[in-house]
Every structure is written in C-alpha cells, then in structure tokens.
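Human: I would love a firmer grasp of how sequence relates to backbone shape in proteins. Take your time, and here it is.
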Amino acid sequence: MLWRFCLYGFLKNQRYFQPFFYLALIEKGLAFSQIGLLIGLRELLINLLGVPMGAAADVLGRRRSMIFSFAAYLVSFLVLGWAGSFAALAAGMALFAVGESFRSGTHKAMIFDWLAREGRSEEKTRVYGYTRSWSKRGSAVSVVIASAVVLLTDRYAYVFLLCAIPYALGVVNFLGYPAWLDGEGAKEASLRRILSTLWQGFGDLRRNRPLRDLLTESMTFEGTFKVVKGYLQPLLEGLALALPVLVGLGDRQRTAVVVGAVYVVLHVLGSHASRGADGVAQRAGSQERAAGWIWAGYLAVFAGMAAAFLLGAAPVAAAGFVVLAVLQDTWRPLMIARIDDHAPPDRQATLLSIESQAQSLFSAVAAPVLGIAVDALAGDLRFLPVAGLGLVASGAILALRRQRVSVVPGTSPGQAG
C-alpha cells in the first residue's frame, strides 16, 4: 500500500498550473486584488464545505470520497483552462474547492488507519514524511512539464487543461485501494451519523486544549504560507525580464525558464525536507521543540524578506520564498503527527478537516486584503505587505507559545492546559 500512497501524492501534485497560477490569471486580465478575491472565494468555500465533507468521508467512505474529489478537480481544471471571464474563473474555483473539501484530511486518515492496522503507528511522522517527499518529487516533475508547455505554446492557460490527465490516473489508483480503507463507518452511512460525527469532532476540540493550540498554530502557519507563496511568481517574472540572457525568447518563455528552474529547486529541497522531518524532531528532542525552532526560522525569514523589499534586493526576497517552502515542508509532517496524537481514530478525517478548514478561514480573510495592499503600492515596495503579514503572524504565535509555557511552568506548550 505504501507505493500506492506515494503514487497518490505524485499524481495529486501534477498541478501544472501552480508555478504559473498568478501569471495565468494575470494573462486573463486580472489584477492582484481580483486574484485575491478568487483565492478568498476558494478558501471560503473550502472552509464551509470541508468539515462536513470530512465527517462525510468518515461515514460514507474515505476511498469513495477521494474518487469524487479527483473527479471534481478534473472538471475544475477544464473550466479554469477555458474560462474567459471572472465569473467563469469563479465557477472553476468553486469546483476546485469541492474537490479540496472532500480530499483534505481524508487521505491522511487512510494512511494512519493503514499504519494502525499494520502495527506501525509509531512510524507516522517518518511514513507521512516519506509519502510527502514523493508528493514534492511530483511537484518537481510537474514544474518541468509545465515549463516545457509554456515554452512550446507561449501560453499559460494550457497548464490548467493538462492537469486532467494525471487526475484521471489518480482515480484509477484509488480503485486499487482495499475496500476496508473506506472505514467502518461506511457500513452504516446516514445523514444522522454524519452530523453526529461532525458534532463529536467539535466536541473533541472543546475538551482538548492541546488540540485547540495545535489548530491555532496550523491555521496561522499554513494559512500565511498559502496566501504569500504565489507572490514568488510575479517577483520571478520581473527578475526573468531583467536578466541579460535568453534574449532570443519571448517574455513568457523567458519567465517559464526562470520560474521552472526556481520551482524545481524548491520542490527538490522540499522533498528532502519532508523526508527529514522526523530527524529534525529527534535532534530537537521532541516534535514540540522542533515546531518552536521552525517558528523562529519563519519569523527570521520574513524579517529578511522585509529588509530585501525595502532595499530593492529582489533576488534575496526570492530566495526567502524558497526557504519558507523548505520550512513548510519540514513543518507539515510534524504538525500532522502532533494532531494525530490527540485525534480519536474514528474521527481522524473530521479533525484533520477541521484543521484544514481553519487554514482556509485564515486564507479567505487574508488573501483579498493582501491583494489590495499589493495593488496599492508600486515599485520595489509593492510586495512589502507579503513580508508584513508573515512578521505579524509568526510574531503572534511565538508570543502565544511563550505565554503557554509561562502559564504552566515546567510544561511544554503542547501539554499546557
């Protein structure tokens, strides 16, 4: 099964549009504020749908939910590729949100269920990091393919349409998953059971202070990263057009070469970071302490990016985005394992969906505001709000972590309360 989990991650990350997402929407005539609105709409819908869909996955069947998720993704890519208006793009984003809502938390729950059945639950950080490393390898391959498509066609829109192929293969992969991974609840599916599972999931949060603290950390870390990561693309576009090389190529083709090279490096480093997450926890002495190290690094990188934007050092700021991605790929396996330590086995998908939806709520609010702020500035200072958001978010969480330790002396933040 492990190879199927890895194949899922590899195919899921064949999102050829990701390195060119902002640029593709700009090609369609959108401003940063409009892009922010689309992202906000997507994240709001994910937030509204995700938790009920996570509960539905626990009750109706996780494998079936994943098949439906990939089908919704596939249709959304076709709509986004052919869309010529803001309304059509919004419809494509809505379909994407449906796919994301059924997927978030569900596949992780299947991995942990399989590990428990195999008697390997203590390996969850290592195994999830390993499968995630294959996801990042998939991302690296997708960047190469996407860059080649842009070079050959001089268009960004085709990178949406091409995604339909690997997602169709993903459905075939799910058909090979054993039926028992649908979960025990799938044998007694009903609306009442879905609502009951959902209510119990929220009850777990009310009663469990460490779980609530983890939710706050995840919402802030992942929500911030979701919102800021796309701004690397226009920054790289500016660098590509300023370089005294590749002058025989068109603007989009030069951008494709530079963006492709940077994103390949980013994803290769991310693959190693995910696989090495368990080693970071061992060196730190605990997953909780490792998370503290990463938060400190997060703050330091955003501070460096703010200085780079103020000084007009765009290459340094671009390097900062790459470091942020490496930190996020180290952070994610640690966070998933920390949440699983507090999640009842029969509500894993529900609680992991709540965690994912908290991130989406943060992003739904922050993305439009950040887009408006970026549009309001010009020149070297245009992207300064990106660093500002990261500084505020990471500074607030580090302060909360210190407060939790001081409230309960001698106790780790994850144990306080």
About this structure: The chain has 18 helices and no strands.
